[in-house]
Amino acid sequence: MVNKISSKSRFILYLSTSSLIVTLHCATAFAKPSLHQKKDQQFNQLIEKRDDTPDQDTALNNPEADPDIDPSGELLLGGVNKYLDKYGIQLGLSWLTETAGVINGGKKKGADYAHQVAFSIDMDWEKIIGWKGFSTHAMILNLAGRNASTDYVGDSQIQAQEIYGGGYARFFHMNYVYGLQKLWDDKVEIRFGRDSVGNNFALSPFSCQFMLIATCGQPRSVQSQQGFSPWPGTVWGAKILYNFTSNAYVQVGAYESSPWGTGKGGPAGFDWGVKAATGAFVPVEVGYTSNFGKSHLNGYIHVGAGLDTSRFQTWSSQATGSGKKDNRAQYWVMMGQMIHRNDQIKDHGLYVIANWGHDSPTTSSFKDLYNIGVIDKGFWHARPYDQFGLMMTYYTVPRGLSRAQEYQINNGMVSGANGIFNGLLNGAPGVQSNSLLFEANYGISVYRGVMIMPVFEYFHNVAATKSTYTDAAVLGFRTNVVF
């Protein structure tokens, strides 16, 4: 499928990661106890830096906003971390579950459960030994469960449970280990180690508050390709971020590009060799954080692109055996803007969210993907930490892929019955074109660090096909416990 890494690409890859080896001997961690909590934390840090709303967790004209029922808090480790913070150490532990079941349409009725247990540790070396601006970060995962989209929905493109990521069912998986150096009064950040592109680029603070993988953690079209490594796969890489104003930044990175299975750390996450690498992925992104008016209506916009230097067989060559190959690139625009503030808590308001992702059509599983939706936090005075979300996604697959699938069928290269085929490119059950997806959810704050979320999902044109499975209606249930 792809060539082994060229000498030029290998030089780029080693140049971007050669400084990591010494640092990683002392690397431990930074982050909230799960990737989803980490994204919320990153956005809160942006707001704290660029929003002068009061810091206290008391809602405007709402005395019922008790921090003891804030689901973004910590259930058990709050006191421990408060004590450890003066020594430069922070611990994190979380348990995220997602259950999804088809109630109508799709492949058949039934439900699956999946979970992630995440443990992280943050070490601030400025507090520990006086190394100004330097910290190290790590996370380990336990992953278990089954994929409802494969078993019941019949969709090879979009997972009903975003937590069901690549290479699942791992008792122990080393997720990331990296170092972070801040310079020039935090204007510059240098991040390097075993990391994911998706932890740094095309990152939305709200994307993983939906259960469909169409949105979490990047637009699905962007994260589905080899070079743009998403959670839980990690590769060697580095990035440099420069805050050229208090509201705007630019960042560029270089990461190993390797396939799932043979690369990205292997099953346990400790295979750190680069023998599986086929090239380097080089992303660049600019971003702006907004803060409008007396109500401090905060938001963000990210615009970026990435190029994978690997050479991939085109869809037509995979069907015909012509041997033609091409590079792969991705582009993205992501925004979220609060249009109404519900109370004084920093992120409580009505947000409009919109994303676009585009991929090289000759070699990618997607062509264009669009998300548009809303999240409303703190809208109910009596339950200030509840939230609801609505998200609609539309995507298209490349015409070259559809033609290659038609070629396979017309030339007897695949088997099938009743319009459902085995062996088609992209793992599809039929010739693909486009699909429309919908999700509605309601997050219920149970207690400090605990949120439960009923979810409804709808798949129109399952797996981007029009003549295989009927539209699928899915009910789901999500729990997130931050210990």
Automatic annotation (TrEMBL):
Signal peptide, first to last residue: 1-31
Pfam families the UniProt entry points to: OprB
A Gene Ontology molecular function term of the record: porin activity
GO cellular component annotations of the record: membrane
Keyword rRNA-binding: no
Signal as UniProt keyword: yes
Family assignment from sequence similarity: Belongs to the OprB family.
Name of the featured protein: Uncharacterized protein
The organism's taxonomic lineage, starting at the top: Bacteria, Pseudomonadati, Pseudomonadota, Alphaproteobacteria, Acetobacterales
